[in-house]
User: Which sequence fits this backbone?
């Protein structure tokens, strides 16, 4: 049970992010919670492809005595995590620019006071 | 105890239930079982693509279509930010 | 925002070429060492944003036209798709790696060597289409990230936006 610590860390990060999205009132705190959930999902993708005692799948100057398919870590989850990180950056940029626009229009960042469509 | 708080606690407990149920079925850490696609990629990277880096050859050659979609997402994000701040000029 | 003191501006001037050279090294050796287009592009964009913070966003927005930055980003995207379509015309499949093992003239290959199987130290002339696509994606990431931060920093320093 103590050996599965990366999976327990993934569960803890997703729960903290979900708590920040559901129970907080400030808009910036909600955006931070969404970013924490994305970090937890990226960590989960990487820990899916780990082999015991493996090295990185790069052939330039390997350490002595590593076998090719058996002693290397899986490369496909790392490629998917790269794409996911870039998507997280793009979504964060759009979210923050929308929050700036809302603040200039309403004058407050409280989620329970931004209710009606202002004309 | 408003209705919003009750619905939020209900959603949270349902998500906790799903996570606990699926944490009992996952493979242990460090032992992914038998993976045939990744073994084929690791042994044939240098002869098919000519690159020494396995991760770069997966990102740009074996799965280049996903990188094309990601470049489109970057372009859409920059276009969206430029459109939101269109009136803030000199 | 206004500019920072003279010490900060001097240190930013000295360390900007070092950061740019390291970022271009990470982009160019993407097929030999860990790195590639996205990682190297993020490093160079961090160096540019450091200059933006040191000199103030009002000075930077007056001297840098963001139409050129968006033109650079579009150039990177068109180059990426152009290389993919070139694989369709020459190789027969979309995204085909057509430069591996292709000899153009007598002894000249454009990124066409094949390294020996095993733990070798390959030279930079290997890996087919991958260095061209690395460079296109790196250009796209640099221009995109710098343009987004420039516009958001200028918009947050104004008192009110004109209608």
Assistant:
């Amino acid at each position: 049970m103590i050996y599965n610590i990366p999976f327990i860390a993934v569960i803890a990060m997703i729960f903290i992010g979900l708590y920040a999205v559901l129970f907080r009132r400030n808009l910036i705190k909600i955006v931070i919670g969404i970013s924490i959930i994305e970090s937890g999902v990226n960590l989960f993708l990487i820990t899916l492809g780990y082999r015991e005692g493996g090295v990185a799948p790069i052939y330039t100057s390997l350490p002595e005595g590593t076998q090719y398919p058996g002693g290397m870590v899986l490369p496909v989850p790392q490629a998917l995590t790269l794409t996911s990180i870039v998507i997280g950056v793009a979504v964060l940029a759009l979210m923050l620019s929308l929050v700036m626009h809302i603040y200039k229009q309403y004058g407050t960042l409280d989620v329970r006071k931004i209710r009606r469509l202002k004309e | 105890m408003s209705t919003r708080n009750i619905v939020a606690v209900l959603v949270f407990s349902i998500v906790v239930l799903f996570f606990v149920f699926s944490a009992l079925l996952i493979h242990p850490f460090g032992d992914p079982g038998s993976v045939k696609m990744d073994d084929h990629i690791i042994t044939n990277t240098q002869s098919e693509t000519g690159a020494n880096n396995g991760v770069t050859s997966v990102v740009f050659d074996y799965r280049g279509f996903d990188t094309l979609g990601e470049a489109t997402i970057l372009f859409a994000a920059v276009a969206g930010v430029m459109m939101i701040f269109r009136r803030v000029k000199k | 925002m206004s500019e920072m003191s003279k010490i900060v501006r001097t240190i930013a001037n000295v360390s900007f070429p070092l950061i740019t050279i390291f970022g271009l090294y990470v982009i160019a050796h993407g097929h030999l060492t860990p790195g590639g287009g996205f990682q190297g592009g993020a490093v160079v964009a961090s160096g540019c944003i450091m200059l933006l913070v040191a000199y103030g966003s009002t000075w930077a927005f007056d001297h840098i036209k963001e139409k050129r930055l968006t033109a650079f980003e579009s150039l990177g995207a068109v180059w990426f798709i152009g290389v993919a379509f070139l694989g369709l015309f020459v190789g027969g499949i979309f995204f085909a790696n057509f430069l591996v093992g292709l000899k153009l003239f007598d002894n000249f290959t454009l990124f066409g060597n094949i390294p020996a199987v095993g733990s070798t130290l390959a030279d930079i002339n290997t890996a087919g289409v991958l260095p061209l696509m690395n460079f296109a994606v790196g250009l796209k990431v640099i221009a995109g990230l710098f343009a987004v931060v420039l516009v958001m920093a200028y918009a947050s320093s104004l008192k009110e936006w004109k209608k």
Notes: Helices of chain C lie at 6-28, 37-55, 57-63, 66-91, 130-155. Chain C touches chain A through 17 residues (CB under 8 Å).
